[in-house]
Amino acid sequence: xxxxxxxxxxxxxxxxxxxxxxxxxxxxxxxxxxxxxxxxxxxxxxxxxxxxxxxxxxxxxxxxxxxxxxxxxxxxxxxxxxxxxxxxxxxxxxxxxxxxxxxxxxxxxxxxxxxxxxxxxxxxxxxxxxxxxxxxxxxxxxxxxxxxxxxxxxxxxxxxxxxxxxxxxxxxxxxxxxxxxxxxxxxxxxxxxxxxxxxxxxxxxxxxxxxxxxxxxxxxxxxxxxxxxxxxxxxxxxxxxxxxxxxxxxxxxxxxxxxxxxxxxxxxxxxxxxxxxxxxxxxxxx
Length: 286
Known about the structure:
Elements lengths: L13 E5 L4 H17 L2 E8 L12 H7 L10 H5 L3 E8 L3 H11 L4 E6 L11 H11 L2 E6 L16 E6 L6 H13 L5 E8 L16 E8 L3 H11 L4 E6 L4 H7 L2 H6 L6 E5 L6
Parallel strand pairs: 1-2, 1-4, 2-3, 4-5, 6-7, 6-9, 7-8, 9-10
Antiparallel strand pairs: 5-10
Helix pairs in contact: 4-5
């Protein structure tokens, strides 16, 4: 099986995946591993522990996954992983502040993409809950793929990709074209044969930004507008499609209300029922 690398303008050379060994983190791991395969990126897996109470075998098994995906034979040696172009690093950090530990690692080992699970179960808070996952992505300022707990995502346990419906909320600011280009490159890199991309503008149709639709064989692009609250409109549209992935460009928090309620992407993340890819304005996509 061959994989098409992403163009240099969106080159992902390093991927960071923090894990708490939960089921949700396992799903996020599959997405990170698949991305590492198609981009040939360095892949760092980090677990933060308050004490020396975790076992090395608790870390996601890269070779077992690749064997299950049919990419290497069963009981393959470690070199079989590197022969696929994968450079995997598993790291355990100690401390009681996961955000600080993750940001400290990223400061020394910058990543082009962060892939993490976000737990939203009421009454049971794990260290990688949305109160931790969101600050990691916000302070790191990097492209981040969030996989909410309870969501199967678009990469299955056997490595197959089910990604046919993508929602891209757009506005005049930040510029929408980088997100559209990112979607085109995702489709190309994962060799997705067909599907539909929906561009959503919340507000008057007259105020919708002008965009250029790329020509991607088998994929259709459509533009729709909705009136009302931005967050609710995005969530309603994602449910109606239903979306396999939401791609949002964000400028971060601005103003008093955003400081209280969080950015639009953070509000959407807390209730979305599919993975969300956040693209900070001014990043490598800008």
